[in-house]
Design goal:
Blueprint (H helix, E strand, L loop, with lengths): L5 E6 L2 E6 L10 H15 L6 E6 L4 E3 L4 H4 L4 H19 L5 E5 L2 E3 L1 H8 L2 E5 L3 E3 L13 H9 L1 H10 L2 E3 H6 L5 E3 L4 H13 L3 H14 L4 H15 L3 H11 L10
Helix pairs in contact: 1-3, 3-4, 4-5, 5-6, 9-10
The structure holds octanoyl-coenzyme A.
Length: 260
């Protein structure tokens, strides 16, 4: 697929996916959502790629939300369909078997904040601004924000953002656990790369199962979640990576994981 609204490249095991509509602060129209889905499906099946950095083009914005011009044309039935279809794409990202890092380089609002919430980690530049401003438009978040935000930052803080529509800066996002790290704008991508490269040095099967345990487990009761964890923990013991990792520790050397 040729992308109209995304930049896509892979380098040194990392896929760089950049939402590229800078004239509208990288707002998400349906075409962009569809392209994101295609890019993530390609990365999922590419064994040369170990992780993804998702960002926005330009210095001003990660993603300033759903495209309001496109939203304004919708009626209740297509708005619901748009919400469900978009939620499925964010589900693909959240349950991605490889780590996905949002590099938040400016406005991260509405559907943009929801996109970042579906990523596994968020690194924010000092100029990032996070918010769920949908109430200003007379609507609520429709791409998982009412569900993922409270799970990440707690109900009270999520409700404050969702009901006031106020924006918070990168430091406040870091303080409440919405951002994992805050960096200078020119160090944003390298900080995300450092995170991914650290993960690439670990047992690949364990990384994949760790993602599955956390992402799937969050949707279960505690008892079901710890059962899932025990099953996946046991599965690790069938891998060559586990034998290599434990052996390397005992031999006081670095492990040479094969991802098997
Ligand atoms: N949609 C469409 N166009 C946008 C959007 C947007 N979300 N955000 C900015 N733009 C456009 C502006 O219209 C403007 O275009 P033009 O130059 O033609 O006038 C251009 O981008 C630059 O924007 P501004 O001039 O407004 O830039 P400022 O620096 O003055 O302000 C802001 C930046 C504060 C980010 C401001 O643009 C703004 O408030 N934008 C809207 C933010 C917003 O409300 N986002 C939430 C949208 S609703 C939503 O996301 C619901 C998600 C539901 C999920 C559905 C599935 C995806």
């Amino acid at each position: 697929m040729t992308y109209e609204n995304l930049l896509f490249e892979t380098k040194d095991k990392i896929a760089y996916v950049t939402v590229n509509r800078p004239k509208v602060l990288n707002a998400l129209n349906w075409q962009t959502m569809h392209e994101l889905q295609d890019a993530f499906l390609n990365v999922r099946d590419d064994s040369e790629v170990g992780g993804v950095i998702l960002t926005g083009a330009g210095e001003k914005s990660f993603v300033a939300g759903a495209d309001i011009k496109e939203l304004a044309t919708k009626g209740p039935v297509d708005a619901k369909e748009f919400s469900i279809a978009s939620q499925q794409i964010l589900h693909l990202i959240e349950h991605f078997p490889k780590p996905v890092i949002a590099a938040v380089n400016g406005f991260c609002l509405g559907g943009g904040c929801e996109l970042a919430l579906a990523c596994h980690m968020r690194v924010a530049s000092e100029n990032a601004k996070f918010g769920q401003p949908e109430v200003n438009l007379g609507i609520i978040p429709g791409n998982g924000g009412t569900q993922r935000l409270p799970r990440l930052v707690g109900k009270g803080r999520a409700l404050e953002l969702i009901l006031t529509g106020n924006m918070i800066d990168a430091q406040e996002a870091y303080r409440i656990g919405l951002a994992n790290k805050v960096t200078a704008p020119n160090e944003l991508i390298s900080t995300a790369e450092d995170l991914l490269n650290t993960i690439f040095g670990k047992g690949p099967v364990a990384v994949k199962l760790g993602l599955e345990a956390v992402n799937h487990g969050m949707e279960l009761t505690l008892d079901e979640g710890v059962q899932l964890e025990a099953n996946l923990f046991g599965l690790c013991f069938s891998t060559e990576d586990m034998k290599e990792g434990t052996q390397a520790f005992m031999e006081k050397r670095k492990p040479n994981f094969q991802g098997k």
